[in-house]
């Protein structure tokens, strides 16, 4: 199943599943480099960070944010 790290709270990551359900996972259980916005997969009891999908997701968000700023006549 696919998850996205919503936020970090202390020693836990709050992650959102494909179904919209939010849950907490200890940071120590997640792969190195997992941070807010990271795309993770939980397969056979293991967590895997998908660096390519994370980068693509961040780029899409960057483009959306830039278009919002341009719509206001401002630049970030």
SSE blueprint:
Elements: E1 2-9, E2 12-17, E3 22-26, E4 39-43, E5 46-49, H1 51-71
Antiparallel strand pairs: 1-2, 1-4, 2-3, 4-5
Instruction: Please count the beta strands (DSSP E, at least 2 residues each).
Output: 5
Series of secondary-structure elements, N-terminal to C-terminal: EEEEEH
Alpha carbon gap, first and last residue? 35 Å
What number of structural domains do the residues give?
Answer: 1
Structure description:
The chain is α+β, with helices and mostly antiparallel strands and 76 residues long. It has a single domain, classed as Roll (SH3 type barrels), CATH 2.30.30. The chain is 28% helix and 37% strand. It has 1 helix and 5 strands; from the N terminus they run E-E-E-E-E-H. A hairpin with a 2-residue loop joins strand 4 and strand 5. The N and C termini lie far apart (35 Å). The model has no long low-confidence stretch (mean pLDDT 92).
Write a compact overview of the structure shown:
This protein has 76 residues and is of the alpha+beta class. It contains one helix and five strands; from the N terminus they run E-E-E-E-E-H. It is elongated, with a radius of gyration of 14 Å.
Note the main attributes of this structure.
single chain, 76 residues, alpha+beta, SH3 type barrels, 5-stranded antiparallel sheet, 5 strands, 28% helix, elongated
